[in-house]
Structure formats: C-alpha cells, structure tokens
Amino acid sequence: MSETLVLFLPGATAPWRWLRVKDGVVAARGEGLPVLAPDSAPPVVVTPADAVTLHWAELPDRSAAQAVTAARILAADASAAPLSDVHVAVGREASGGERPIGVVALAQMRGWLDLLAANGVEAGVLLPAPLLLPRPDSGFVAADLEGEGVVRGATTGFADEAGLTELVTGGVAPERLDGAQRDAAIVAAVAAPALDLRQGVFARRTRFTVDWALMRRLGWLGLGILGVSLAITIVQIVKYDVAAADLEQRADLAARAGLPQGETVNDADRQLDARLARLRGPGLGFSRTAATVFSAVRAVRGAEVTNLAFASDGTLRVGIAADGEGAATDLQQRLRAAGLTVDPGAALTASGGRITGTLTVKPQ
C-alpha cells in the first residue's frame, strides 16, 4: 500500500495545507501541519507558484552538470537578478523535448528549508505548484490548488492573477480542472515529479545506515573464508610432514644399505659417517691426500715420489727426490698452496746431483 503526503507551503496569508495520496487517489486533505509518522516517507512539498520562475528549453543530455550549466546561462539572460543570487534547477517531463527549468532566489530556498526544519519536516521533493498540472498540447489549463490559483501552458507556469493571466495567455481562457480531474493531475504529478528544486547545494543529504543483516552475512562469509583458508593450510602442512617423513625413511633405508650386513643399527647416519671415515682414512683420507701430493709433484719439473706411508692420524710421509734445492722448495710451496701443512723433518740431503728426503704432510 503506497502513501504520499503532499504538503503546500504557506503564503503571505495562506496557511499550511496538505493532502494525502493513497493507492492512486487523494484520500484526505486538510489545513495546518499534519502529524508525521516517524517511519513515513518524506513528503512532496509544493512551493508557491509566484515564488518560482519557470522556463522550458532544449538542454544537453550528456550529464546533469552540463544541463545545469546551460540552464544557468539561459537564466542569466532571462533574470534581472544577479546569477549569484539565484538557484537554478533542471527537470524532465515525460512529454515534449524541452526540459523545465526552475529559477528561485537563494534566500527564498533557504527560507523554505529553514521553515520546514523548524517544523520537523524533511522535504523529499520541492515541486513548483504549476507542475502539479498536466502539460497541455496547446492553450492553457488552470486549477485551484489548495487555495492557490495556478495556470499552466506548454512552456509556461505561473500564479493565476487577474490581469496577468489574460496578458500571458493573450486573452485565451484556460481550461479549468476541477474535482476529479484536478486530483488525478496531482496524483500523476506527485508519482513522477517533473522538477525537484532540491538540487546542487540544496540536494537532500542521504543518511548512512548500517544494514546489520548484511553485516552478519558478510561476517559469516568472512569466517567461512577464514575456515577454508585454515583448512587448506593444515592440509598442506600435513602433506609436507608426510612427504618429509617419507624422504627421511628413504634416506634411512639408503643409509642402512651402506652398512655391513648384521651390524646393529641405532643411528644410521652416524654409523654410516663412521664407516666412511674408516674406509677413506682419517683426515682427508689416503686417496685425497695422495692425489694432492702427486698433483704437486707433477707440477715441479725433475721431482718424483720415491715412497709413501699413510699413518693412522691422517698424516702422509712422502719420500721425494728433486733436481736441486730450488725444485724441492717449489714442491713444498705447492703442497702448502694445495691446503696441506708440510714438515720436512730432517734436512734434505744431496746425492748424485739430486735432493732426496722425506716430507710429512697433513691437512691444514
């Protein structure tokens, strides 16, 4: 069930007047300020016809800002008041290509809104009185709107005053709308207002309200997303843990395969390292130490190895022979550069033109 309150602003001598539109008909009307229900829709407030100047013009449709700018230019040409002192609003009608333009003094707009606020009324729409009447295809229509006479033409709208009306209409008598015709026109105009003066700086401020039902749904949705993300993380952790355990088991099996058969396994990694140390020898092991020594000997011309002896502490005793002391010194320097410590022991001896002796080498 739809219901709209139409409130007529008071004039110099006219009181507040109102009517109530319910289910497409005027259901009630009266004088004074009606009691407004707290949850009722904001009323359509009708402004006096003599306080608003109406024009019609073809305006650009690209944006509201362009339409208002063009309307202000037209209003500046047609208005005697400075453009800075007037408020210009643009509307649209269902019929006709031209759009209605309302021009009203800024002080008048502020006065209306202050009056409404002082009486606890928030206007949903500020509608000039002539736009309650239908737009005629030709000629003029007139009606008594809650105590105010109003005349409407295709591109005019003004208060019905003796002398002025005949001048504007050129002596053509307007068609009078009374009773059911007038009420039907009001119902149609209120259902789709052709012009709302509450634009720009006077636009109605929308109040921010919290949709708690939506907030609860969003909260549950957020918890669901968090739960799914947590479940995915837990599954990934379990998968990684299972994969790591499998890799550890495989490594343990591989380590056990490298131990002697029949050996009791307590710590496969430690026991495998111990066996590897036994196989390769202490220190760097015999193979690596001997390979380093032979590489250094090959690099020194006239040097050769005469014997080797690998000790249990990882040291290698190397018997050498070289062509002169210079070659023996070069050999020792190369061994040290390869990461070995060199102990020549007893002094090297010369025999038959060659230097011989024993070097003790081990990792640094």
From TrEMBL:
It comes from the Bacteria. The chain crosses the membrane at residues 218-238. Gene3D superfamilies: 3.30.420.380. The keyword Oxidoreductase does not apply. GO terms for cellular component: Gram-negative-bacterium-type cell wall; plasma membrane; type II protein secretion system complex. GO terms for biological process: protein secretion by the type II secretion system. Residues 31-156 form the GspL cytoplasmic actin-ATPase-like domain. Belongs to the GSP L family. NCBIfam families: typeII_sec_gspL. This is General secretion pathway protein GspL.
